[in-house]
Amino acid sequence: METNKKFGLIGKDISYSFSKKYFTEKFSKELFDDCTYENFDIASIEEFPNILKNNPDLKGLNVTIPYKEAIIPFLDTMSDKAFRIGAVNVIRFTKKGNLKGYNSDWYGFKKALEPLLQLHHKKALILGTGGASKAVAFALDKLGIFYTFVSREATENAIDYNRVNTTTFDNYQIIINCTPLGTSPNTKEFPPIPYEFFTEKHIAIDLIYNPEETQFLKKAKKKGATIKNGYEMLVFQAEKAWTIWNK
């Protein structure tokens, strides 16, 4: 391997980042002594070219909120899956020096959800419509699970929260929080859905991993639902990113 391989994360307010801790520990444990990982915390995506200019030894990047869609115009090319999803969370620096965007979020989510699925889990509600929710939708498509988006305002592609009721819970057995509501330090927040309709037949998944158990998960668990936070998804997507960078 070449010397001084630098990797990093593009995002905003990312001091809490999973990625830096995960990859730093991975490099240490697996003896990748020539690899480092750095957070690039930027207030605007317009600062991205400066990161490239000031870090000529960059070999790969992760991208997190709020830039998974905003990063796309800065890329030279995208993988077919990232293009179809419309969001990028991994950037590979090709041998020619081009930036190619990938999405490993969908893969991570699919791997995390699969062990929980039973025959009656046919439909999913996706809370939120950002870049992460697009990757979740792509994974659900791959699994043959029908889904509906829920947003603060009804759109052509989403219902609003006021439409979620007991009938919705009867019809949708998987509820996925793709919003940032409940992330540390704002741990008292939660999506505005009627939690009393969760049952032991439901799965509640939160893409948030800090705190380990959000209000969303706690409220669903109280009603007997199977719950899972975003940690496992992050591990799967991180390992997929590592594979992509080392193509």
Automatic annotation (TrEMBL):
Domain Shikimate dehydrogenase substrate binding N-terminal span(s) in chain numbering: 9-91
Keyword flag Amino-acid biosynthesis: yes
Pathway: Metabolic intermediate biosynthesis; chorismate biosynthesis; chorismate from D-erythrose 4-phosphate and phosphoenolpyruvate: step 4/7
Keyword Transmembrane annotated: no
SUPFAM superfamilies from the UniProt entry: Aminoacid dehydrogenase-like, N-terminal domain, NAD(P)-binding Rossmann-fold domains
Segments traversing the membrane: none
InterPro entries cross-referenced by the UniProt entry: Aminoacid_DH-like_N_sf (IPR046346), NAD(P)-bd_dom_sf (IPR036291), Shikimate_DH-bd_N (IPR013708), Shikimate_DH_fam (IPR022893)
Keywords per UniProt: Amino-acid biosynthesis, Aromatic amino acid biosynthesis, Oxidoreductase
Name of the protein in question: Shikimate dehydrogenase
Organism: Flavobacterium chungnamense
